[in-house]
Amino acid sequence: MENPHPRDEGRRQRPGTRTFRPAGVLPPDPGAAPQTADRATERFSAVAHEIGNLLDGAFRYLALARRDIIESGQELAEEGAARQIGIAESALGRVAHLVRHAMRPGVGSLASCLSEPRPLIDAVLHAREVLQPMADERNITIHIEFSPRLVLTPAGPIYTVVANAVRNAIEAAPDGGRIEIIAELSTMPSGEPEVQIDVLDDGVGPPRGAGECVFDIGFTTKSGGLGVGLALSREIMHELGGEIALGPRASGGGRDRSGAHLRICYPAPAV
């Protein structure tokens, strides 16, 4: 699959890139001691963003369970409602995990704060489950394709990045659209393994001319949007020594713009 943003394959650091920081918080004085309050504020903003997305998915599933109980037959209602409540319970469990972990002393980085022990494949599947009701409202399908080589790869903080990418794709896709999540384990020029995840949609594509600005804190094209998700995702990827890129999906069928293509890649964690 063609990368919409060719990159220097040997580069693992991006000197001079902006660090994720909530709007209105000034960068610390380079000559001053590290600002504990700034790090705490940054971590709180990241956790609050993640919790908001998880709660939205949980409430959607609880609403579906309530509808099934009211409108469906007894046996069908019990089966459907049990599954929906189970997914909501899982989302709320992650909320509890995030809150407990974020309040622990010494949790400095966003990646550490948002990490979880589950396998990467489970984390991506859970992201789809949490966001499925949002996609179903507009008859959008979410297709996942995994390399078998990723079976044992731990998720770390990748749930947050993938869930944000899928939510953005759902919001951009047309009614009846299709979202693809493709995860592979490739090899870097150094010979070390690298996780690569592509999220593609068939919406209008990223804003023209925005470039790297889409990853700036506060940048948004959504009515009422906060511009936090992509900035948070970029910071997580940089902490992992990886990269994230957003560009137009490769054209097809004679169309100039056929959607957006978000790619993340980072060194594969040790199993």
Written overview of the protein:
With 271 residues, the chain is α+β, with helices and mostly antiparallel strands. It has a single domain (36-267), classed as Histidine kinase-like ATPase, C-terminal domain (Heat Shock Protein 90, 2-Layer Sandwich). Helix content is 42%, strand content 17%. It has helices at 36-71, 74-102, 110-114, 120-136, 158-172, 229-239, and strands spanning 116-119, 141-146, 154-156, 178-187, 193-200, 243-248, 260-267. A hairpin with a 5-residue loop joins strand 4 and strand 5 (193-200). Helix 1 (36-71) packs across helix 4 (120-136) and helix 5 (158-172) runs antiparallel to helix 6. It is globular, with a radius of gyration of 19 Å.
What is the topological layout?
Elements: H1 36-71, H2 74-102, H3 110-114, E1 116-119, H4 120-136, E2 141-146, E3 154-156, H5 158-172, E4 178-187, E5 193-200, H6 229-239, E6 243-248, E7 260-267
Parallel strand pairs: 2-4
Antiparallel strand pairs: 1-3, 4-5, 5-7, 6-7
Helix pairs in contact: 1-2, 1-4, 4-5, 5-6
Number of domains: 1
Structural class: alpha+beta
The shape is globular
Compute the number of helices: 6
The CATH topology label is Heat Shock Protein 90
| CATH top-level class | Alpha Beta
Report the span from N to C terminus: 26 Å
Per CATH, the superfamily is Histidine kinase-like ATPase, C-terminal domain
In the predicted model, the low-confidence regions spanning at least 5 consecutive residues are 5-37, 253-257
What is the count of β-strands?
Answer: 7
Could you estimate the helical fraction of the residues in percent?
Answer: 40-55%
The Rg value, from CA coordinates, equals 19 Å
Strand content: 15-25%
The main sheet comes to: 5 strands, mixed
Summed over residues and divided by their number, the pLDDT gives a mean of 74
Order of secondary-structure elements: HHHEHEEHEEHEE
